[in-house]
Amino acid sequence: MKKTFLMAAAFLAGLTVKAQQLNIPPLPTPTEGKTASVYTTAENTDLRLSSTGTLEFKPAGQPLESEISIFVNPEIHFQSFIGIGGAITDASAETFAKLTKEQQTEILKAYYDKQSGIGYTIIRTNIHSCDFSSGSYTYVSDESKDLKSFNIDHDRKFRIPMIKQATQAAGGSILLYASPWSPPPFMKDNKHMLKGGKLLPAYYDAWANYYVKFIKAYEAEGMPIWGITIQNEPMATQRWESCIYTAEEERDFLKNHLGPVMHKNGFADKKIVVWDHNRDLMTYRANVIFSDPEAAKYAWGMGFHWYETWAGGQPMFENVGNVKQSFPTKNLLFTEGCVERFDPAKYQLWANGERYGRSMINDFNNGTTGWTDWNVLLDQTGGPNHVGNFCFAPIHADTKEGKVIYTPSFYYIGHFSKFIRPNAKRISSTSSRSPLLTTSFVNEDGKFVTVVMNQSDDKVTYNLYKANEKVVVTIQPHAIQTLVY
């Protein structure tokens, strides 16, 4: 039987696994340019990131219209790749702390080990509380602008230990960035962390210094901060921690306060990411901020989420491409996505995994340089979440039953994160038929990685062309494959 990440019996029984059952295939060492190693995850099978064969490239000419083909041109390069990962929130860390040491080790290896797991290289975390915290809190105990009471003691109980363990599991270093959901209440016009409100102009500099103090405090713990986003979802008045910035307000806060304060404190190297909200309005935000030279000089790029479908439409992938075409020197980072409205009956709903695959392929093909999932771990309620906004994660831990549950989303993400490594370059890759989605990268070691996703109900045989050679591949219905060659 082919190697699988989950034993078939466990899969049919509910996809709960124990550490000793994890058996993800190692990274391949194919003959240079001659063979392609294939890995497959497919619905209604026991294939989960499974090694499903090694194929030999053969000379090929003009493909026929009746054939289905993927065309890869290694000579055409696009954006560089910084990595894939997920958020270690308070909810993730609190759930993690309730597990046995064996289960903790299993989850850390599953996510962060590039040989026995899926090789995450990015962590996002929250600056004080968000909805996926057990309650609202800040890092200050008074209302002074000088922030003398600032401390991160709250995070030392659960979140910092988990981030440190994840970093160790990833090999000792990881790209860590942080996002705030709201300033402290006294800095806002509604005097509350929840339900929107705005940052009062009198506290612009104090709030800018809050980011600086957070960075210094985390780095004092031995956790280097790669960057920050200015505000999580700045156009959404949520029942949880939230704060509203128009594009013009975010621009002015960045260029007149946050950017200068970061530079003044020696953090000019930290990446500042704007927007951090959905694809629908990202073009307007980019036009306002990136067209202003004084603001743009402080912005590394733009972060975005996938929740624009709340209005009933389809994902607006073309907006990602528009921003990249309009501002090619700015970077694009997917900063959050999850499957909403948690329901334990849908742990294994295949469409949830396909949502990840579809988004990742389209986002990368539109110029995205890195991709960050939301919570890496949640419990059997889809939380904890102090406002009842329960959601799915790729891995859940049923802390009452003592089970670790892997969802299809975990494997779909793994088809990218395990094989496409930091500093890879995206290369030209297209499909001749709409049921097959594809993206391709070349890693620093010269290995090519092509991801192919079959959205259809039919098994498909396709050609993978690299220049004037090809391999012939079969992909199951509702499946995703990674080819390494």
Automatic annotation (TrEMBL):
What are the GO BP annotations of this UniProt entry?
A: glucosylceramide catabolic process
Pfam families reported for this sequence: Glyco_hydro_30, Glyco_hydro_30C
| UniProt entry keywords in alphabetical sequence | Glycosidase, Hydrolase, Signal
Q: Which residues form the signal peptide?
A: 1-19
Residue ranges annotated for the Glycosyl hydrolase family 30 beta sandwich domain, each copy included:
423-483
InterPro entries reported in the protein's UniProt record: GH (IPR017853), GH30_C (IPR033452), Glyco_hydro_30 (IPR001139), Glyco_hydro_30_TIM-barrel (IPR033453), Glyco_hydro_b (IPR013780)
Name of this protein: Glycosyl hydrolase
Q: Which organism is it from?
A: Pseudochryseolinea flava
- Give all residue intervals belonging to the Glycosyl hydrolase family 30 TIM-barrel domain: 83-420
Q: Which domain of life is it from?
A: Bacteria
**Which family, according to UniProt?**
Belongs to the glycosyl hydrolase 30 family.
Q: Which GO terms describe its cellular component?
A: membrane
Recorded hits in PANTHER family, A to Z, give: GLUCOSYLCERAMIDASE, LYSOSOMAL ACID GLUCOSYLCERAMIDASE
GO MF terms listed in the record are: glucosylceramidase activity
